[in-house]
């Protein structure tokens, strides 16, 4: 089960589950090269016994996404290893990249001010 966390505000994902409940997940843990792949069928649930199993910080979520697993297996680590995904030598310094808000603003040719990375982090922390 996955909680629809408070502040997520992404109804499009829930709409996608309603229109096509087949899902695929890639589960990755920082520093571990193996990846777990899951295929299954998702449903949106509001059962109180399920909501209490998935606490979101100090609150229970309003809905959970329940996934009935049809297949699950480890994906070979070769691609992650070849790509040096977890290597510090290949990490990009965030200070030289524009914020995601700035990238979106530029792509959409918006006139409004975009938040910088520091402002975005403050917003995230205040809305947890």
UniProtKB/TrEMBL annotation:
Which residues does UniProt call coiled coil?
none
InterPro entries reported for this sequence = Split_barrel_FMN-bd
The Gene Ontology terms for molecular function here are: glycosyltransferase activity
The alphabetical list of record keywords is: Glycosyltransferase, Transferase
Cleavable signal peptide: none
Gene3D superfamilies this protein is in? Electron Transport, Fmn-binding Protein, Chain A
Designated name of the protein: Phosphatidylinositol alpha-mannosyltransferase
Organism, scientific name: Vibrio alginolyticus
